[in-house]
Specification:
By secondary structure, the protein is an alpha+beta fold. The protein is 46% helix and 20% strand.
Length: 301
């Protein structure tokens, strides 16, 4: 990425993050991230594409781990839980990144317009990718951020510029892998569909054989490809979804611990508490007293 574009992106990111955190902009799906302290964090990632502008971070999904820093782009196409470590960040030199939600339906639509010289690739056990950000993709990000200065232009131009950035990703070296997740008929796409099915009905008991049948895979093949793409078995994935949703309910103050447990599908509040403690490192009540500061659910790259 050209130095002048990188500086402009970082300047926008600083202006749009007056406080620490994951800060949505006025452009739909676009957010800026500022972190001022190193540390570990669990999060549940929706599909996104992010460019890192300052600082360094390490993310692990299952057995796959990537470390990335200034000038790198991070791309995910499937929702997954991850464990991240911010390795370089301080108040004087915070970790900065710009994040755009990945629209898989748009990627599928755009993929149909490509010629066969860019064939879909299987994920091959890669739930997410890190690569150097090209000048063209960085410039697309900059045009999106510039819209924050002319809010009246956002309704008309934001969809066009978002579409352009998605198209440039498909034309990048990662395009084949992205198409592998977004194109019908690949194992990666079958797992992406399975993830959607589980997310849409995560409160109900999960029948793995039924989900495998619905996406057109044998149960054994489904298990293998699901773990490669998400880092977890289907049952583990559903449990993690329930725990994150339960944490969001508790954070909102809408329910008690037992109420949150039953709302996300647990038959026993004690089992919810035990699973919560194992996953988040503290009980729900301890997390409430701590102000939910130990680990969050809203951070992307």
């Amino acid at each position: 990425m050209r130095a002048d574009i990188a500086r402009s992106l970082a300047d926008f990111c600083r202006r749009l993050t007056p406080e620490v955190g994951f800060i949505p902009t006025a452009v739909p799906g676009l957010a800026c991230v500022r972190r001022i302290a190193a540390g570990e964090k669990r999060s549940f990632q929706n599909p996104y594409v992010a460019v890192v502008l300052q600082g360094r971070k390490r993310t692990a999904v299952g057995s796959v781990e990537h470390t990335y820093g200034p000038g790198d782009i991070v791309v995910t196409c499937i929702d997954f839980p991850s464990f991240t470590t911010i390795e370089e960040a301080s108040p004087e030199k915070p970790f900065l990144s710009v994040v755009l939600e990945m629209n898989r339906d748009l990627m599928t639509e755009l993929s149909l317009q490509l010629t066969e010289q860019s064939l879909p690739e299987e994920a091959g056990g890669q739930p997410f990718f890190v690569s150097s950000c090209s000048d063209s993709i960085a410039a697309s990000y900059l045009r999106l951020l510039e819209l924050t200065e002319t809010p009246d232009d956002i309704p008309l131009l934001a969809p066009i510029l978002t579409r352009e950035l998605h198209a440039r990703l498909l034309l990048s070296p990662l395009g084949g892998w992205i198409r592998g997740v977004c194109s019908v008929g690949t194992h990666s796409n079958q797992i992406a569909r399975a993830v959607t099915l589980i997310k849409n009905d995560f409160r109900q008991p999960l029948t793995v054989a039924d989900v495998a049948r619905r996406v057109g895979l044998s149960e054994a093949s489904f298990h293998r490809h699901f773990k490669a793409c998400t880092g977890h078995t289907p049952i583990q994935y559903q449990k993690i979804l329930r725990l994150y949703e339960g944490r969001l309910i508790l954070k909102s103050g809408r329910k008690s611990v037992s109420g949150a447990a039953y709302e996300v599908g647990y038959a026993s509040s004690s089992q919810f508490t035990n699973d919560y403690r194992r996953f988040f490192g503290m009980s729900p009540r301890e997390d409430i007293r701590a102000g939910f500061t130990a680990e969050g659910t809203d951070e992307a790259a």
